[in-house]
Design goal:
heterodimer; A: 619 residues; alpha+beta; Beta-Lactamase; five-stranded antiparallel beta sheet; five-stranded mixed beta sheet; 63% helix; B: 199 residues; alpha/beta; two-stranded antiparallel sheet; 6 helices; elongated
Amino acid sequence: MKNSFFNTAPDMEQDTLVFRQGVKKRSDKLINLFLAVYFLVGLIFASFYDTWLIAVGVGGLSLIAYYSAKAILPDSDLYQYVLSVILGVFMAQYIYQMHGLFEMHFWAFIGSAILITYQNWKLQIPMLAVVIIHHVAFGYLQNSGVENVYFTQLDYFELRTFIIHFVLAAIIFFICGLWAYQLKKHNETQIKQSLEVGRLQKEALLAKEMADLQESLAHEKYLLDSLMDNMPDMIYFKNKESKLIRVSKFMAQRFNSRVDDLIGKTDFDFQDEAHANQAFEDEQQIMKTQQPRIDYIEKEIGEDGSEHWISTTKLPMMNTRGEVIGTFGMSKDITKIKTLEREQLNADMEKAVAQGKFEIASEVMHDIGNAVVGFGAYITRIRRSLDGNHPEKLENLAGFFQEQQPALCAAIGETKAGAVVSMLTGITETQKTNEEEIKKSISEQQNIISHIQEILSIQRQYIEGQNRQERKAVNIRHIINDSLSMVMAIIEKSSIAVTLNVAADLPGVKGDRTRLMQLVLNVLKNSIEAFDVNTTEKTILINAFRYKGQLVVQVKDTGCGFDKSVAKRLFERGFTTKPSGSGLGLYNCLTIIESHEGEISLTSEGEGKGALATIGFKI
Amino acid sequence: MKKGIVILWLAALFVAIGILFWRNEWVYNLPTPVPANYKVVSAGAIIDLPASAKFTDTRPVFLHFFNPACPCSKFNMTHFKSLVKEYGKDVSFEIVVQSNKKYTVKDIQDKFGIEVPVLFDTTLAAICGVYSTPQAVILDPHQQLYYRGNYNRSRYCSDKKTEYARIALDTYLHSNTPAVFDQYALKAYGCQLPKCTKP
């Protein structure tokens, strides 16, 4: 693995180079300042002994040498060596300018110290060379004029002093060179150390990243393993040759194999050829087009001949560079879903048939209802016709003939008169008997019609319950008023006093207006029918009010009431205490109130003590 | 290639610096070349001074051969002043200007900061056997050459042991025995005299 992390040499070189350039730049700036001062010092010294030519000439040429070398070869260190030389030259210049003033030799030390800034010990050498050449030249020149060397104005400057002078100068140059060298070395070491520290930090960071990565990988693997080991689906990854590289446990089990045994195999190894061919072609196509195939459903026939439905999704598998390296996918056995779907379909069909039946039944019952109403109307007409008959007239006629029998005997003979009277009396009797029979029969018919209508009402209620539609708000005051007007004739005929007490601001009740009217009517009818002929005080009190989130309608009568045993069975289907009752009235009420999510109760303190019907609606 | 040119260029510059040093200093470390037509004037010889430099009193005469453009003369000025200050009462000091430039007496006196007679007679040098500056010539009242030589072994006149001119003056004034000078004193060092001044 190529990793620049562990290759510090270029870094070291780079950093050292950058550092050296920093030193160079910084030093160059300082040197500009120093050289300006050097030149100025030369001018100041010139004023002492009138040495302007040397000050300007030598100083100027020195500066030209330094700056021209620097300008032409800025990247080379040459100009630094030139600097070293000219610092020596400046020293010579000052010595000359100041009349050989011994202290001017200290400029050698100043120059030597200045050169440390470049951290290059070799820079000491050119200046040292200049100093040596300078002194040697003097020695040679003076020696060639006269014997014995003399180039000092100091009387004590003997050979010993001269040697000390040279040794000290050499030591200074050496020490300055040493400092330069050590500075450089120290800085390089520091760079190396900081690089090392940086490297270690990076390594530590890398190690941590690696650990984190491993942890993350382990976690991801755990998640993938969980998926592959536990999902009841066939999940698989295949390479470009459609060879399995990873399969879920479920898939292995389905093919009666182990996960490891399937790795490296193709569909041809464990599927029938047609199926394997199809899968292979699909996968090649997916890799070629890079288009996934999602949720396509296939039917498979199992070894036992059973039918299986499989939903499959296959996708192209890409590497990080976006190149296709295989496919992966998931196949799910959806036979159960398919079966459920089929069952659902059947159920829907049945429901539709049932719905049809309901509709037919509803229509049939409607027609029957119409027919019954018609039948009832005719019966009523017959009864009215009967009521319009006057049998007493025929009786009067028979009585008249009986009274006039003596006269009649005189007219038509006694035998015939007796026969006429006897016949009329017989007809009258027969007529009377027949009429009573017919009336009884009509009354029975009316009961039967009422019975049929109640049955129809319950059946309609049931049918409507199947397809209940959204109900509208109904004003309960109107319901009560309308119901009262319908039974007003009987109420008046029966001399019943009705007290109506309906609160003004009652809210509407969501419901079926007709059904609710039927409910109120039934309750009213029960109250009306609860009065005996002999009852002296016949009153019905109707209250409607709001109570604890409910709209309550109360119908209280002073009728015959009922005992506890009756109370228990009041709402049973078919239970009645009336000779002509069907036992469906209250049952019907209960059905209606339940379909309106309300409640109904009927109570009595006992026989002869009246009854109280209470209906509650949610508001 | 570039580096080669730079080195050549630098070499030229340093040669120029060398020339400057040579002409202003190093060359004076060598004895001044003796002119071809030089006539040796030995100590004790009678010097026939021209009218301009005739003795005005009976004091010995100290002639200071001075060239304002000569570096050695410049460095020597302080020393000369000190001699004038010390022996001015006993000796008649005169400055003999050796230059082809025009100077006034005041110019020269201003340079030294002392009032000493200034001579511009260019023949004096040859008469006294002088061929460089700075040179000291001491004539006794009888116009006999007592000393002609350097001021100091050091070109900066700072070596007390070799203040030859002072020693000569001192010996002449305070000792009966004549001074003995070595080659450092008598072999002329310093600037050559300007060529146009030659007769």
